[in-house]
Specification:
- The complex is a heterodimer of chains A (375) and B (145).
- In chain A, 34% of the residues lie in helices and 18% in strands.
- Chain A has 375 residues and is of the alpha/beta class.
- In chain A, the strands form 2 sheets. Chain A has a 9-stranded mixed beta sheet with strand order 3-2-4-7-1-8-11-10-9. A two-stranded antiparallel ribbon of chain A has the order 5-6.
- Chain A starts with a strand and ends with a strand.
- Chain B has a single domain (22-138), classed as Beta Barrel (OB fold (Dihydrolipoamide Acetyltransferase, E2P)), CATH 2.40.50.
- In chain B, strands 1, 2, 3, 4 and 5 form a 5-stranded antiparallel beta sheet that branches.
- The N and C termini of chain B lie far apart (40 Å).
- The chains are: A alpha/beta (375), B mainly beta (145).
- The A-B interface holds A 115-116, 118, 121-125, 127-131, 133-134, 137-139, 141-142, 145-146, 186-191, 231, 233-234, 236, 239, 361-362 and B 17-18, 20-25, 50-53, 59-60, 77-89, 93, 95, 97, 99-100, 103-105, 107-109, 115-116, 118-120, 133-134.
Chain lengths: 375, 145
């Protein structure tokens, strides 16, 4: 592709009921614009990812930072909404529709939820009380039965990502946890305990996308692919989402001309611990059933061959749905520039972001985005 | 409803539930509730794809759909127990993905909620919960595979 990420910015992440969507967006956009070394009036269009944002949230917030009159396009793809906005922004530049585009994600979740996210009552499973943790709990239970993954191995995802997140000043939870603490925390949906579930969060993240230019700080987009899931039904032996992530990743590798082994640093959708294990397998880092080994042998921790979620992931950073995908892109940009401080992955040249959105019964996922970046 | 057919509370609207069309699998029982319960759905007249949705065209091949019923027996694909509160629900409650024999995969509630069913367990559809959710019960010990 002939497209680069010029600059990125984020608000802090956490339960911030005192911060309006406008103040979160302001923090993310002003940092991204400054980081990109462009002017506000050079932005030709904005793609916005948000899930629970009230009607008009994009226009209402952007006018307060001085972005108006340009096309503002709001997209919803569940947890992958932010990455979908990024994906569309990249392709709008690649195809020449716009020149400099802002990809923006925003979510004020404490205004909408006291606890776990649950799908709409019009959904066959949402109507039955299928909270999002139970969607992933179903995967965890099936995976454990099929491959013998232990509760301790599941907990290691949370231990690793919380350890990584201690070095991320913007993360919601900056505290190391032990296997025992993870397993002894309150059971949410068997076998997933509280410390294996990401937190709802209020935040915004932004990225300025444009045609490749000579700036040494820019990060090139090698590929970005967006797919929706196929039917997930009685014919599906795989856990929910595996096939969608695997297919999206395969296309993204193909488009970029790289393989899984080429990724030096990776951000994946660890909304729940099992999500990271299944996703690392779907990305091709381990054969099916062996994702737990990546944690046991240190392959995916900082210092290992292919660190996964050096930011702390969703488990540590928090999960403001619309902002998450662009926050993942921001982490990879910092990593590839060598700006990631105490969580820096040394010598990282190629980065990968994967985001998975779900909550709709009967399909393998609402949307998955996989993008490869290089500097 | 006429004759012996007894409609469970799963219908177009469930008592005390949200307004609007009920998207859940539609459970019906012949005779005594809890003995012979089925999910009323559709099956493709061409590729035989089964679904619990009242679809008129097959989502797989585009063929025309005809009425069919599924259950009462099935096999657990996976299961969990939800132990946190979400609006309108009182924890804990057991949930299971059940592949009904020669039928679709449905989500159902489980009669016992202390511990989760295991993948491979054989279960039987026994009607609906008070809230109108399909309800399954463990038939015996876990089947192989």
């Amino acid at each position: 592709m002939k497209v680069s990420v010029y600059g990125i910015g984020t608000s802090s992440f956490g339960k911030q009921p005192g911060m309006s969507a406008a103040r979160l967006v302001e923090a993310a956009v002003l940092e991204a614009i400054d980081d990109a070394d462009v002017q506000l009036d050079e932005i030709d269009a904005v793609y916005v990812g948000t899930v629970f944002g009230e009607a008009g949230v994009a226009t209402r917030t952007l006018q307060q930072v001085g972005i108006d009159r340009v096309p503002i396009i709001t997209l919803e793809n569940a947890c992958a909404s932010g990455t979908t906005a990024y994906h569309e922004a990249v392709w709008s530049v690649e195809t020449g529709r716009f020149r400099r585009v802002l990809a923006l994600g925003v979510e004020t979740m404490t205004a909408h939820f006291a606890g776990a996210i649950h799908p709409e009552n019009v959904d066959a499973e949402g109507r039955q009380g299928m909270a999002l943790p139970s969607v992933y709990a179903m995967s965890a239970a099936r995976y454990q039965s099929e491959f013998g993954l232990t509760d301790e191995e599941l907990a290691l995802v949370s231990v690793k990502n919380h350890l990584h997140g201690m070095e991320n000043p913007r993360a919601q939870h900056r505290r190391a946890v032990t296997i025992e603490e993870v397993l002894e925390s309150r059971m949410v949906a068997d076998p997933l305990t509280l410390l294996q579930c990401c937190s709802i969060s209020d935040a915004s993240a932004a990225a300025v996308i444009g045609p490749a230019r000579s700036s040494v700080r820019d990060v090139r987009v090698r590929s970005t692919v967006l797919r929706s899931g196929g039917l997930w039904d009685h014919r599906s032996d795989r856990v929910w989402g595996f096939d969608l992530v695997a297919e999206t990743a395969r296309l993204a590798y193909e488009e970029a001309g790289v393989s899984a082994a080429d990724a030096d640093v990776i951000e994946v959708h660890d909304a729940f611990t099992i999500g990271e294990i299944v996703t690392t397998e779907a990305l091709g880092l381990a054969p099916p059933g062996e994702g737990g080994k990546l944690l046991l042998n240190g392959h995916t921790r900082i210092g290992g061959a292919q660190p996964v979620n050096p930011s702390g992931g969703l488990l540590s950073r928090g999960h403001p749905l619309g902002a998450t995908g662009i926050a993942q892109v921001a982490e990879i940009v910092w990593q590839l520039r060598g700006d990631a401080g105490g969580r820096q992955v040394e010598g990282a040249r190629i980065g990968l972001v994967e985001t998975m959105g779900g909550g709709t019964a009967g399909v393998d996922g609402n949307a998955c985005v996989v993008t490869l970046l290089e500097r | 409803m006429s004759g012996q057919r007894h409609e469970q509370s799963v219908g177009e609207q469930s008592p005390g539930g949200p307004a609007g069309i009920d998207p859940r699998p539609h459970v019906v029982s012949d005779g005594d509730p809890g003995i012979g319960s089925y999910v009323e759905g559709r099956r493709c007249s061409e590729c035989r794809y089964p679904t619990f949705h009242p679809a008129i065209r097959c989502a797989v091949c585009g063929g025309s759909m005809e009425p069919d019923r599924y259950g009462p027996a099935g096999t657990v694909f996976s299961a969990t127990v939800v132990r946190i509160a979400i609006p309108g629900r009182v924890p804990p409650y057991g949930l299971a993905y059940v592949d009904l024999d020669d039928g679709p995969r449905i989500l159902g509630h489980v009669t016992e909620s202390e511990s989760a069913l295991q993948p491979g367990d054989r279960v039987q559809l026994v009607g609906a919960t008070e809230a109108g959710d399909p309800l399954v019960r463990l038939l015996g010990m876990g089947a192989a595979g």
